[in-house]
Amino acid sequence: MLTIEQEFFNQYRLMYRPFINLINVQLGKYQLYSSQWALLRLLMDKGPHTFVDIANFMFIEKPSVTRLVQKLVELGYVETVAGRDKREKLVQLTANGEEIVQEIQAHLKPTMEQALAGVSERDIEIATQVLANICANINR
Amino acid sequence: MLTIEQEFFNQYRLMYRPFINLINVQLGKYQLYSSQWALLRLLMDKGPHTFVDIANFMFIEKPSVTRLVQKLVELGYVETVAGRDKREKLVQLTANGEEIVQEIQAHLKPTMEQALAGVSERDIEIATQVLANICANINR
DNA sequence: GCGTATAGTTAGTTAGGCTAACTAATTAAA
DNA sequence: TTTAATTAGTTAGCCTAACTAACTATACGC
């Protein structure tokens, strides 16, 4: 006998791989993976961030950020600039990076919509809110 | 400008690592990881399965199933028995495995509840349904 | 009976994280 | 003012949890 909580997490986990694979196939054209895309989107939405800020926002460790940024710098989508002191570095999108992000966003849109086909806007919003609440509960 | 679909998937992805880490900490006592736990739960809920069935249910490939099962056999939580012909093997819980699954389920319950604290039962059910719909849309 | 299909395994690769231990720069304290 | 502790980022090496390609053994269709 599963509780509704357990059922929810069951379903949550089950969806992960198929979803990530779907996204990664779409991102292949841009030589990106979903983790790198997540960082690009963060920079687009909220502007330049330090490595530590990125780690905090994405709930990953600093060395993982280093690797993500290295790859995106290689691709020319982001660049690092001096921060408030000599230790700090700010990561920001390049001009090309900004273009690419918009292009990818447009490219991914139909895939997202199809994945959520038949689900009402209201339910999507509720589900999003539920996920946000869990995030807040877990990372307290 | 993010659409509500993109916002949803954003939030979905953001939650994954913290959630899996939380579960894995709880499962550490039983020398299990969340992927192995997912398989144990499948066997508990729906009885014995062949390797191919497991692969289909969990949306993973056969070699991944082999590895999962090997580990769980080592731990004595599952066993394989002859199937309908000489090729097929059925994976099923051992007596000890069944006990452990129930113990873990009870152990995880408060963690799950706390993660969903402040979320109404109705919203949890809606979110679960949304995830199930996406799964169906993606794996069509 | 022979070619094809199916069940499972083995070997090797990958994404995407992690920790431990490090350097360089800054801040606090003696 | 020197010294200790903290902070930002990097490097090296590890792990989970998947993947593909290629294999063996068995079963099925014609």
Question: Outline of this structure?
Answer:
Two copies of one chain form a homodimer. Chain A has 140 residues and is mostly helical.
Task: Tell me what the structure shows.
The structure is a homodimer. Chain A is about 70% helix and about 10% strand. In chain A, helix 1 packs across helix 5 (about 95-115), helix 2 (about 35-45) packs across helix 4 (about 60-75) and helix 3 packs across helix 4 (about 60-75). Chain A has helices at about 5-25, 35-45, 50-60, 60-75, 95-115, 120-140; strands at about 50, 80, 90-95. The model of chain A has no long low-confidence stretch (mean pLDDT about 95). The two termini of chain A are about 30 Å apart. By secondary structure, chain A is mainly alpha-helical. At the A-B interface, helix 1, helix 2, helix 5 and helix 6 of A face helix 1, helix 2, helix 5 and helix 6 of B. Chain B binds a DNA duplex (30 and 30 nucleotides) through helix 1 and helix 4.
Intertermini distance of chain A: 29 Å
Helix amount of chain A: 55-70%
- Counted beta strands of chain A: 3
* Outline of chain A: globular
Q: Determine the oligomeric state from the structure.
A: homodimer
Structural class of chain A: mainly alpha
Mean of the pLDDT scores of chain A?
95
Uncertain parts of chain A:
none
Q: Tell me about the biggest sheet of chain A?
A: 3 strands, antiparallel
Task: Label this structure with key terms.
globular; 3-stranded antiparallel beta sheet; 140 residues; 69% helix; DNA-binding; mainly alpha; homodimer
